[in-house]
Fold YgjP-like metallopeptidase domain-containing protein.
Amino acid sequence: MSIIRRLFQREPDPETITVSHEGVAYTVAIRRLGQARRFTLRVRSTSRDAVLSMPARARIADAIGFAERHGAWIATRLNRIPERLAFLPGASVPLRGVPHAISHRPDRRGTVWVENGSILVAGEAEFVSRRVRDFLKREARKDLEAATRRYAERLGVKVTRVGIRDQASRWGSASSTGAINYSWRLILAPPFVLDYLAAHEVAHLKEMNHSPRFWRIVKELCPGMEPAKAWLRAHGANLHRYEG
């Protein structure tokens, strides 16, 4: 590589930087975006960090300075994010929107079952968390497959596969091949929220966009979509408090 080329070559951006406020260090991810016109900051509750978006031609030194000047803002927003909750005995977990206490039953046979408002877990204590998580994912798959099948039949479309994942940035996604993926965390929400998400993703098999026609299809399938959307805006972030 020539000396002139090396002089003009930009060093790669760091993936993250650290901003300190009152003696506490906070991680900030760096994203250089072609369409960005200014520096912007946002926080991510799932990864408990901040993201700084910057214009394509901006200097990384200016981005770092911007983040440091907003250290108090970053600290305040991140400290508002609720702590993660583990699936341990005594913890309360919403199942279909209804709080259920986790209770360990080492003397019982089986794995996980629901009884009198509790999630009961048999077996050794070290496996309680994993068994509760697996149980919730099975329940999510059952409810989402049923809702997806119901809406697909009404709309006359073919669903080739229903997948259950732990998607941080979206509650569901649909592909033109007929495959639909959902976040298992929807089983923590009230049933009308899960129902709306199923209608939303099935509607994408007719319209792979968010056009007015798409939203008309969703509303025909799920007339109660607005309360569900409002619930997700108000409470959706809290569903990520629980360990994945």
